[in-house]
Every structure is written in C-alpha cells, then in structure tokens.
Amino acid sequence: MDRFLSSAVNRIDAKGRVSVPSGFRAVVQKRGYSDLYAIRQLDLPALDVGGPDLLDSFEQRIAQEDPLLQASDDLAYFYYGDGAFLKLDQDGRITVTDFIREHTGITTDVAFVGKGKVFQMWEPERFRAYGAEVRARLLKRRQDAAGSGRSE
Fold this sequence. Notes:
It is built from five helices and eight strands; from the N terminus they run ββαββααββαββα. It is α+β, with helices and mostly antiparallel strands. The protein has a single domain (7-123), classed as Transcriptional regulator MraZ domain (Chemotaxis protein chec). A six-stranded antiparallel sheet has the order 1-7-8-4-3-5. Strand 7 (109-115) and strand 8 form a beta hairpin. The protein is globular and about 55 Å long.
C-alpha cells in the first residue's frame, strides 16, 4: 500500500520521541522519503506531514498566483516559512519538538491519522472531538439529502 491509512496513538518516550506507526513508516520507505515535512493546518490543531511531493504540491499552488500580489507572498510564507522538517531516526521515531507541541497541544501521546498522500499528527483528545464533529456533519448531510429526495 502506498497511502497513509487508518490511525494510531503512540506515547512519547522520556527523550521526547514518538514512534511513527509501522504502516506509515512502510509508506515513507516505499516512497523513498529521507525527510518528512510538516506544516500547520490553518484551522485545526493538527499538522500535515508528507515528503517532497507535499512540497511539490505547494509549489504548484504558489505558481498559480500572481507573484506581484500579496497572496503569493502569503502562501510562500505559510508553505515554506511556517513548516518544519522532521527527521525519522533509524528506529522510525521523530522528536516531538516545540513546533509540534505549540500548534497541536500534544503532551504525552500523539495521534497519527492517515489522509492518503499525507498523514496528520494530533493531540488524541482533540482528534477524538474532531472525529465526532466530522461524523455529525456527515450524518447531517446524509439526513438533509434524504429529506430533499436526492442522494449524495
């Protein structure tokens, strides 16, 4: 499999490291990533983590903007200046840095969440709450569609 799927919660060790789930490490290895890149979600207390293809998608997005407009500078700051490289050690662990902790609220455990081409890192309770919100929105959407006689 070459996608990040499922979710897992792992404990941060005494040295501030956490093991990336083995299924995620297999994807990283299959894709040949030597470094991971993390970027803060704008509206969620989570990080998106991926490899060079994540950076490639950012560059494609920036290229769509007029380089003389503020949007181009804003995107460049957000994608490049507001992210961080994460290094996997030989045992498949990453160090949980202040960059990670400050945005996510992570303290003792990390929820790793697959999102296909990337994975996310969350504080587990915040992830559980977010999951409940997502299911509620989807249920409402299903109920609204059923009530209107159309299917989505």
